[in-house]
Amino acid sequence: CQVKGFYPPRISMKWKKNNEDLTDGVNITEYCTKLDYSYQRFTYLKFTP
Asked: Which domain holds residue 21?
């Protein structure tokens, strides 16, 4: 999942399953500065289909 174009660099990103927060297999990147001085952030969820 990617979120981009926000400022200031404070945003919460969560993965949910059946309305419950998931924590296992979740990775969230640091904030990345874009050329327009806004920010972006990525989060990844490892899963087996």
From this structure: 2-45
